[in-house]
Every structure is written in structure tokens, then in C-alpha cells.
Design goal:
Layout: E1 2-6, H1 9-22, H2 28-40, E2 51-56, E3 63-69, E4 76-77, H3 82-95, E5 102-106, H4 107-121, E6 124-136, E7 149-152, H5 158-172, H6 179-188, E8 192-197, E9 200-207, E10 214-221, H7 231-245, E11 250-256, H8 260-268, E12 271-283, H9 290-301
Parallel strand pairs: 10-11
Antiparallel strand pairs: 1-2, 2-3, 3-4, 5-12, 6-11, 6-12, 7-8, 8-9, 9-10
Helix pairs in contact: 1-2, 3-4, 5-6
Domain N-acetyltransferase: 148-292
InterPro entries: Acyl_CoA_acyltransferase, Bact_Acetyltransf, GNAT_dom
Keywords: Acyltransferase, Transferase
């Protein structure tokens, strides 16, 4: 039983790709990050090379868990057994090559890893983001729909979309890499739908590439002056309908659990809960604010609560 760690994306895909594709909903972010790295190269998310790994429960056996890390983003973990999560913490602590500033995973795995990491290193953990993963059941578009119509964004929309994505990053305090590169990546696979009114885009909704019959809606945005009119819901319904029409089996999205408006909206559209995810941060105990950080650390060991409103999944995939 051991972790294998590599900087070789193709080695990782060969070893862990089958495991990830067998559970595309639970591994949605891992799959979309791997897809983006395959298309755009190892520098897609930053200058430091990505690190990958997989867990085998038996010698020479198939992968039973996986992680990847694209600095500056924290390690992204699949669902792991307690033994695998603790083993990964020991691997990171022993090797020391990867600066572990946090972790991004399903709630149980994130908490297990964090507890092991704190025990090994004396670090303090805080909850940065708490998200809920939803899967589309039966789509129920807004009725009545707002005025306007959907269309696929083109390169003519690029400058506006960059401005909107930059606004999204500012408003949510989301850690985002090169925004222009994100927009170009999504435009490259027709991955952005805009809601248009009288020839003017008023909202947008993005979607990932389809992998293993799965695609994920992300970066739904309406400029502040146009909110409250139903445009975001209409754009989300449109991109969801298009995905289903294209044969996508699992249409997914993440929401911020601190945002009751978005959670209610997506449930009205027909999205149903799959599981909760946490993005946790780690800091040295001597750098922490004792009273606050001890409270957060205790919460991680029990039932963490969100402390930041970031309506994304902790990685701009």
C-alpha cells in the first residue's frame, strides 16, 4: 500500500485515468484539470510544474485514489480511504518537495488529511471555501423566462468576457490564474454561453470540456447593474440544456454553501445534491491568530463551516 508521486502527466493518466473516469462526478475537478493540462501544457496554471500521484492498495494493483497539485493552487484529492489520506500526509511531510498550503477535497477526505497534516507538522488549519456539488436531474428552465436569447460566445466577445471574469475574481476573492487564458480556453471548445438582450450580452455561463460523459457548469456571471432579472438562471439553463442535447450524462456544478440564493436557484433548475467539498488552508502555528485559528482548527476536526463566499470549486478548471 503506497503512494506513487510523479511530475509526468502521461504516467499519471496511464496509472490513474481509469480510476478517475470510473467516478466522473466525484472526480470532476481532477478530470477537468487533467484535460486542461493535456490541451494547454504543464504551464496552464502557473510556472511551477504540476505534481501528480496515485494510491495503490495492493502491490502492482490498480489505482484506488489520486491527487494532483498545480501550484499555487492547493493539492486536489480524490475521495480517499482514511489510510490513503493519512499516507498522503506522511508522504508530503517526509518528502518536503511540495509546499502544502492547503487541500481541496470532499469533506471527509479533506478533514482526515487535515487532521493528519496538523498532527505531523503542528500546522493550523482554516476553512477557506465550502462548496456543494450538484448534478442535473430533470431540467426545469425559468418560467417565465427573462427577455432575450442564448447564444454561444465567440472571439468577438473576448474582451467583454475577460472583463466579466476579472469582475468575478474580484467579487469572490477567488484565486484565478491568467484570466485571458481561461477565456481563450473556453472559447476554444465553445464553452461559454451568453444571454443576449437586444443584441447586448447581459450574462454568461461557462462549461468544461466533456470527459467520461461528464461536464461541469462554472463561472456563471451577471454584471452588478444587471442582476435580479433572471439572466444568470436563463444562461445556466441554456448551457445545461445544450450539454444534455449533446449527450452529456452528468451535468454538474458547484455552489457556495454560504450563498442561499444560488443554491435555491440551481435546485429550482433541477440540480440535486451530490456531496460537499472543502478548501482548507494550512499555516504555521506561530503565524496564526491563536483564538481565531484554534476555533477554526477545532471546527475542521468536527463539522467545518464556511468563512468565505467563493462560488467556485477552488480551482479554475
Amino acid at each position: 500500500m503506497a503512494w506513487t508521486v510523479t511530475y509526468d502527466l502521461e504516467e499519471f493518466r496511464a496509472a490513474a485515468g481509469g480510476f478517475l473516469r470510473a467516478h466522473p462526478a466525484r472526480n470532476t475537478t481532477l478530470l477537468t484539470v487533467v484535460s486542461s493540462l493535456t490541451v494547454a501544457g504543464s504551464g496552464r496554471y502557473g510556472d511551477e510544474p504540476p505534481v501528480y500521484g496515485w494510491w495503490t492498495g495492493e502491490e502492482q494493483g490498480p489505482a484506488e485514489g489520486a491527487f494532483l497539485c498545480t501550484p499555487p493552487y492547493p493539492p486536489l484529492l480524490s475521495a480517499l480511504s482514511g489510510e490513503a489520506a493519512r499516507g498522503l500526509a506522511r508522504t508530503f511531510a517526509r518528502d518536503g518537495a511540495l509546499k502544502v498550503t492547503g487541500v481541496n477535497a470532499g469533506r471527509e477526505t479533506a478533514e482526515t488529511f487535515a487532521t493528519a497534516w496538523m498532527d505531523l507538522t503542528g500546522a493550523v488549519s482554516g476553512v477557506e471555501q465550502t462548496h456543494r456539488l450538484y448534478r442535473l436531474d430533470a431540467l426545469t428552465p425559468p418560467d417565465p423566462a427573462p427577455p432575450g436569447r442564448p447564444r454561444t460566445a465567440t472571439t468577438a466577445d473576448r474582451d467583454l468576457l475577460i472583463t466579466w471574469y476579472e469582475g468575478f475574481a474580484r467579487e469572490t476573492a477567488a484565486l484565478m490564474d491568467d484570466v485571458a487564458a481561461q477565456v481563450d480556453d473556453k472559447l476554444g471548445h465553445d464553452g461559454i454561453t451568453v444571454w443576449e438582450l437586444d443584441g447586448r450580452p447581459v450574462a454568461c455561463a461557462g462549461i468544461s470540456r466533456t470527459i467520461a460523459d461528464m461536464a461541469r457548469v462554472a463561472l456563471v456571471y451577471t454584471p452588478p447593474e444587471l442582476r435580479g432579472r433572471g439572466y444568470a438562471g436563463a444562461a445556466t439553463a441554456a448551457v445545461s440544456r445544450a450539454a444534455r442535447a449533446a449527450g452529456v450524462k452528468d451535468v454538474l456544478l458547484f455552489t457556495d454553501l454560504d450563498n442561499p440564493t444560488s443554491n435555491a436557484l440551481y435546485q429550482r433548475l433541477g440540480y440535486r445534491q451530490v456531496e460537499d467539498h472543502l478548501v482548507l488552508s494550512f499555516s504555521a502555528a506561530e503565524h496564526a491568530v491563536p483564538a481565531v485559528e484554534r476555533a477554526v482548527s477545532t471546527a475542521v476536526r468536527a463539522v467545518p463551516a464556511a468563512v468565505r463566499a467563493v462560488p467556485e470549486q477552488g480551482h479554475p478548471s
